[in-house]
Predict the structure.
Amino acid sequence: MSQGLVLAVDTATDSVVAGVAELRDGEVRVLAERVVADHRRHAELLTTLVAECLAESGTARTELTAVVVGCGPGPFTGLRVGMATGAAFADGLGIPAYGVCSLDALAVDAGPDDAGSRALVVTDARRREVYWALYEGGRRVRGPEVTAPAVVAEELAPDVAGGRIGAVAGSAAHLELAGWTGDPPATGVPTVRGVVMAAAADIVAGAEPEPLVPLYLRRPDAVEQKARRAGAAR
């Protein structure tokens, strides 16, 4: 499929992202986009934002040809909302749903993907940790991982000091904790363009999408708390 109308959603960060884009010959044109920073209302907001984007872009649901969903890494509840919504739209319309790493979507907007250039993407994982991934020439070469910011700073210190990281994306505060001292990130949350571009090659090729699988990278908070209580009781 060389062209089509794509619904994009991402709830891997504290923001709810939704939009409609036209994919034509591998290029993305965003027709409507909504980004709302409210991590407590993902479920309440997402369906409404999707409806607004469909209306603004003049797109009927039946005109959509694919859905792309950011699959994290991110918190359990947020990811579940985005993936369930995206899957429901795809199933109801009989169209494919492609899952992408949300850090890959952020990397699209980080900067140029020239061969040899490196980009670092860092987001808030809570619990004093970060999600991160490293890209070279537009391709992910490390991650996604969840670690303390100090671990990222130590591992990437030679790259940062040597000027080999030319672009960053994600949380400015957590990039700083991870040792970044350069310009602020190009974007803090995934964009509709980034989400669609992360899946563009597969969509254009008509590839069969893999099942949507959330990238938690660790157990949900409730499971961790239960495990700690069980250990304390022994």
